[in-house]
Amino acid sequence: MPRLDTDFHNRVYAVVMAIPEGRVTTYGAIAEALGLRRSARMVGRALGALTGEPGIPCHRVVNSSGALSGAPRFATPTLMRELLEAEGVTFRGETVVMGRHFWDPRTNYRGEL
């Protein structure tokens, strides 16, 4: 994992790196897994600070309804969708089918927090 801004950022990136291929999670679920229940926007800002670091699959993080946000700056919603579809993620209209693809870091993440 690249050494980045803060301990918080690195903790967010560690969770994101643990998301399995073909699965997605939400900003809020990452925040809760880190013990910061109401800090989904902080997670979004941490991902927004990325500039294309390899190995951090931030395209697998969506909002709570499964919509693509385009964060970080280099990943447009179109690119995010292409990357997710290449991993087998399915969509209903413009949103990920969350019931099929949601990965919950609160119960599945086993890394150090």
Structure classification: mainly alpha
Distance N to C terminus: 14 Å
Number of individual domains: 1
The CATH C-level name is Mainly Alpha
CATH topology: Arc Repressor Mutant, subunit A
Q: What shape does the CA trace take?
A: globular
> What percent strand?
5-15%
Major β-sheet strand ordering: 1-2
> In this structure, how is the largest beta sheet organized?
2 strands, parallel
| Number of helical elements | 6
- Number of DSSP-assigned strands: 4
**What is the CATH architecture descriptor?**
Orthogonal Bundle
Low-confidence stretches: none
Give the CATH H-level superfamily: Winged helix-like DNA-binding domain superfamily/Winged helix DNA-binding domain
Provide mean pLDDT, rounded. 88
Order of helices and strands: HEHHEHEEHH
Radius of gyration: 13 Å
| Helical percentage | 40-55%
Q: What is this entry, summarized?
A:
41% of the residues lie in helices and 7% in strands. It is mostly helical and 113 residues long.
Salient structural properties:
single chain; 113 residues; mainly alpha; Arc Repressor Mutant, subunit A; two-stranded parallel sheet; two-stranded antiparallel sheet; 6 helices; 41% helix
Structural overview:
It is a single chain. This protein is mainly α. It has a single domain, classed as Arc Repressor Mutant, subunit A (Orthogonal Bundle), CATH 1.10.10.10. Helix content is 41%, strand content 7%. The protein has 6 helices and 4 strands; from the N terminus they run H-E-H-H-E-H-E-E-H-H. It has helices at residues 7-18, 27-33, 40-48, 77-86, 98-101, 105-108, and strands spanning 25-26, 61-62, 91-92, 95-96. A hairpin with a 2-residue loop joins strand 3 and strand 4. Helix 2 (27-33) crosses helix 3. The longest helix has 12 residues, at 7-18.
